[in-house]
Write a structure and sequence with these properties.
It is a single chain. By secondary structure, the chain is an alpha/beta fold. The chain folds into 2 domains: 215 residues, TIM Barrel (Alpha-Beta Barrel), CATH 3.20.20.70; 41 residues. 36% of the residues lie in helices and 15% in strands. The strands form 2 sheets. It has a 7-stranded mixed sheet. A two-stranded antiparallel sheet has the order 8-9. A hairpin with a 2-residue loop joins strand 6 and strand 7. Helix 3 runs parallel beside helix 5 and helix 9 runs antiparallel to helix 10. The chain starts with a helix and ends in a 21-residue tail after the last helix.
């Protein structure tokens, strides 16, 4: 994964999920990227964050986004199914700051939860500031009807928000109650509450999966968008080829014998049955000029 990310030429890498802190090799991935001059950001639900975890696993990250969707952590648990402890989270954020990382809280605005200007103030005053976070992102729901909160209307059209974010911008920075915030609103490609633009240019962002392959956008839930590959068989084949080359280099076999062995390996690889790769990440919406 590190090699693929570096080969792609990207200097900034975002680690998303799923939940990236569940990856058993997260420390090695972060360290490998940082050693190769990459800046790493990570988005988490906060379930594994603690001062010790930050020190042991997340050292080197440039920033962490913690998804918390209500200032009352019991209410957030109802939304997410994740139980967070305030003091544990505060200590983790303090340790991240000690290591030079910034911390942003991500709050998706949901009807009945954080759904108004006054609720945003409560979120900032009761959670973001006491935790010591640097910024907050308030975002609209995507592809949802019953719980959608229109931030343009909730904030009275202030901060430069409009109901045509595809044209005028879907990600705006502002300050609310002396807290730097980012306001993320959905365009007509992502919600039925705004008109879809005519003939939008759609450019999927590249996404690196855990198989080490970079795909054009998120993979669809029930489709295979890349040729199936049996990675176990490919590894065995490569090892077999390496063994033949080593024997030839050491003069343990002659060129004719090496040629015969390599042909046998190629024949076995050609008849091996590929393994289908399916992902359960769900489809991404088309991407316009809105940046994720």
């Amino acid at each position: 994964m590190v090699s693929a990310a570096v080969a792609a030429g990207m200097l900034n890498v975002q680690l998303l999920g799923g939940e990236p802190t569940l990856h058993k090799d997260l420390r090695s991935i972060i360290g490998g990227l940082v050693r190769r001059g990459r800046k790493v950001w990570l988005t988490t639900n906060g379930s594994r964050l603690s001062a010790d975890y930050v020190q042991q696993v997340l050292a080197g990250v440039s920033g962490v986004n913690v998804s918390v969707h209500h200032y009352n952590l019991a209410a957030n648990a109802v939304v997410t199914g994740i139980n967070l402890d305030f003091e544990t989270l505060r200590a983790a954020i303090e340790r991240l700051h000690d290591l030079g990382a910034t911390v942003r809280l991500n709050c998706t605005c949901i009807a009945g939860a954080v759904d108004s200007r006054s609720e945003m103030s409560r979120y900032i005053d009761r959670l973001a500031k006491p935790l010591g976070t640097d910024t907050v992102r308030f975002a609209e729901l995507k592809g949802n009807t019953d719980s959608f909160v229109n931030l343009t209307r909730a904030l009275g059209g202030g901060y430069g928000l409009t109901d045509d974010p595809f044209r005028y911008g879907c990600s705006l920075d502002a300050t609310i109650d002396e807290m730097p915030v980012n306001l993320r609103i959905m365009c007509g490609l992502q919600t039925k509450y705004r008109p879809a633009p005519l003939s939008p240019e759609q450019v999927p962002n590249p996404v690196l999966y855990y198989d080490g392959v970079i795909y054009s956008g998120w993979q669809l839930r029930k489709e295979i968008l890349m040729p199936p590959v049996n990675h176990v068989e490919a590894t065995v084949t490569n090892l077999a080829i390496d063994a033949v080359i080593a024997k030839l280099t050491a003069s343990k076999i002659n060129t004719e014998e090496a040629s015969r062995l390599l042909k046998d390996i190629a024949a076995r690889a050609a008849t091996s049955r590929p393994v289908e790769r399916r992902y359960d990440s769900g489809p991404a919406p088309p991407v316009s000029n809105c940046q994720y």
